[in-house]
Specification:
This protein is α+β, with helices and mostly antiparallel strands. It is built from eleven helices and eight strands. Helices cover 43% and strands 18% of the residues.
Length: 267
C-alpha cells in the first residue's frame, strides 16, 4: 500500500487562502474598492502569503484581514514597491504602511510640491528657529551617526514647514508613545534611525500638512493602522536623506476610501 502523504500546515493554509480568494462575496467587496485592479490585488495577496516561510504560518483569514487594510487605502502590496507590508510577528500578521505609502497618501491631496525626511549626522550643524520654523542644515557629515532628524514639505500655494528633532527628543517620544519600546527586539532598538525618520514625517504631516476630507481620512486611517510601530521600515533608511521627492502638480484628490472590516469582507 502506498504511503499517504500528509499535507503540511503551510500547504493547508495556502489551500485555505486560495479558497478564500475565490469566495464570490470577498471578490465583490474587493472589486467595489479597487475596480479593475481587484484581480491583481488578490493575486498579490497570494504571492505575498507564499513568499517565504513566515507569513504562511499565520491564519489565512487574519492575513486577508490585514491585506484588506491595504485595499482600503488603495495601496499595492508588492514588497518591491515598498508602499505597505503585512508583517508576521510570531503567528500574528500586522499591516504596516511604509515610507513611500505616506508619500503616496500626501500626493493624493494634490497639494504637495516637495516632501522629504532624513537624518542629520555628526559634523553637520543645525539652525532651527522655533518661531518661524526655518531650518538650515550646514557643514559636512563626519560620520554616519545621526544626531537628529528632519522633515520638510512645501505646498503648491507656497506654504512650507520644516521640523527638527534631536535624537534625544525622538527617544523620549518613543518611550512615551510606543508600545514596542519595552521590547528588546523592537525596531526602536535595532533600527532607531528608520523609526525616528518615520516619526518626524508623521508629525509634520499630521500637524501642519493639508487636511482635506479625503486626505485627512486616509492619513488618519493609515497612522491608526501603523501605530503599533513593530515594523522596521528599511525603505526609510534607503530613501531618506536623498534628493527631495517632487510631487506632480496635476495630481487630483482621490475619493474617500472605505475601510473594510472582516465582517464586510465576508470572512
Amino acid at each position: 500500500m502506498a504511503d499517504i502523504v500528509k499535507a503540511t500546515p503551510a500547504q493547508i493554509n495556502i489551500k485555505a487562502l486560495k479558497s478564500l480568494i475565490s469566495n464570490d462575496k470577498l471578490k465583490e467587496r474587493v472589486a467595489q474598492m479597487l475596480g479593475r485592479e481587484s484581480s491583481i490585488f488578490l493575486q498579490s495577496v497570494l504571492e505575498l502569503y507564499t513568499d517565504g516561510d513566515y507569513l504562511v504560518k499565520c491564519d489565512p483569514n487574519a492575513v486577508m484581514a490585514e491585506c484588506m487594510k491595504a485595499a482600503s487605502l488603495k495601496l499595492p502590496l508588492s514588497k518591491g514597491l515598498g508602499f505597505c507590508y503585512v508583517i508576521p510577528y510570531g503567528n500574528k500578521p500586522q499591516f504596516q504602511i511604509g515610507y513611500k505609502g505616506l508619500i503616496q497618501l500626501a500626493q493624493r491631496s494634490g497639494q504637495y510640491r516637495y516632501l522629504n525626511a532624513g537624518g542629520v549626522f555628526e559634523g553637520e550643524k543645525v539652525k532651527y528657529s522655533r518661531v518661524t520654523g526655518e531650518l538650515v542644515i550646514a557643514g559636512e557629515a563626519t560620520s554616519d551617526k545621526a544626531i537628529g532628524y528632519f522633515a520638510y514639505f512645501e505646498l503648491l500655494n507656497g506654504f512650507s514647514k520644516s521640523i527638527y528633532w534631536t535624537k534625544e527628543q525622538c527617544e523620549a517620544h518613543a518611550k512615551k508613545f510606543s508600545k514596542a519600546w519595552s521590547k528588546p527586539d523592537s525596531p526602536w532598538h535595532t533600527n532607531f534611525d528608520a523609526m525616528a525618520i518615520k516619526t518626524v514625517l508623521k508629525q509634520i504631516i499630521s500637524r501642519y500638512g493639508i487636511m482635506s476630507i479625503e486626505f485627512a481620512g486616509q492619513f488618519a486611517q493609515a497612522v491608526q493602522m501603523d501605530d503599533a510601530e513593530d515594523h522596521i521600515d528599511a525603505e526609510v533608511a534607503a530613501e531618506a536623506n536623498a534628493e527631495a521627492i517632487v510631487m506632480p502638480e496635476d495630481e487630483t484628490a482621490q475619493q474617500t476610501v472605505i475601510q473594510a472590516t472582516e465582517e464586510e469582507a465576508g470572512f
